[in-house]
Amino acid sequence: MIKTQGQDPAAAGPCQRFRHRSCPMDNAANSGAGSAETVTSAAGKVTFRDIANAPDGQARETLIAALVARMTLSEKVEQMSGSMPLRQMIRRYNETTYDSGANDRLGIPAIRFTDGPRGVALNRSTCFPCSMARGASWDPDLEARIGDAIGVEARAQGANFFGGVCVNVLRHPAWGRAQETYGEDPCHIGVMGAALVRGAQRHVMACVKHFAANSIEDSRFFVDVRMDERTLREVYLPHFRACVKAGAASVMSAYNSLNGSPCGHNRRLLRDILKKEWNFDGIVMSDFTFGLKNGRAGLLGGLDIEMPCAIHYGGNLKKLVREGEAPAFAIDEAVTRILRQKARFASVGEPERYKREAVACEAHRQIALEAAEKGMVLLKNAHATLPLNRSSIRRLAVFGELAKMENIGDRGSSAVYPPHVITAFEGIEQAAGPGVKVEFDRGSKPGRARRLASQCDAAVVVAGCTWRDEGEGGLWFLPGGDRKSLYLDK
Question: Per the domain annotation, does 69 fall within a domain?
């Protein structure tokens, strides 16, 4: 193994510089390199099981280097490329895990990705309150318990990677995915996000997203976010760093560009800050489908895995290496990171808890209820209207179409479908009891609504947004996106 200390793939110019092997570029990769003699002696026999069974530290890193040396270029590139066909991904969105990097010859398991953050985006899982509501609880211990429950349900359904730690800072309330983050303060977001990481990583790898400055939806695929260094450091990065310090296994790059460079191959973000300055030794994963725009730029910029399928990596990456347009040592660095995290989590968990009946179990539903109760915010209570006095109410009017809608969240990556949903109207009926007549009106005709309200002892208005008004958008099957108005009636 030829080593060239300090080699930087982005700094190498002519393609002939890439025709020899060299060492990885940054501290995290350098820490994983064993001596040439050790690697050579182990390379002929090492498998992933050996890595997983080795103690964390230099012994494991030496075995990882030996396994990388055993791998063919095709096998390495497969570690860096999602394996789900694009059509299947769209057709089966949130019905299955999104896999990458399985290798039967060497016993390397796949990354089996599932999304969030309301819960596990698979089948019929517990639907927790959205992150914004959980952030309003100011309870990181509760958030860690939510992460633990999510990790258990993910493992029970075959996933080993949770991509639902969303910590983008809220900069405008019209942002369509505002509810997916915890709030507008970097410190608050960082504490809550780190708690979710710690809880989930008792069982699965956790991925923190979207790195960075991804606080818009409709223009996320093409917008170039411009800012000075102080703004970046004080507003857009602290919460990500908090999650990295908590031990996050992965960071997902954002769709947008930052200061002229797409985040999926932004060297300043991925290599200089994340991997070098913060000593992040985990995996950098692209956002899905459109998160990488150029295979060579992604490799040089520090992107380790393209998901959910190989568009710019895969065969294109092999071709670049074979033609001398991309450095083989950068491939080795990415694969080293991937194997490191797979080995780290190979023996993590509590297998006795990963039973099908753990999914949407009563214990997890009680955690969701606790989070909903602690996240509620009373803005005003004029004339001590609340709590309603059941003994003085015989007729109760409930207004708003959302009252009878199973409005549990958005579509797209955050869609979670629990086995049963109680609507607001059903919940009010149950709470009111048999002695109270509860009547419903959509509220679409003000005159009729006014008459009903005047005939009742109390009225409840259920208002808000649906997945058609906000949420992940920008694609033909996702009609949400940024809100066009902050008024509830528009």
Answer: no
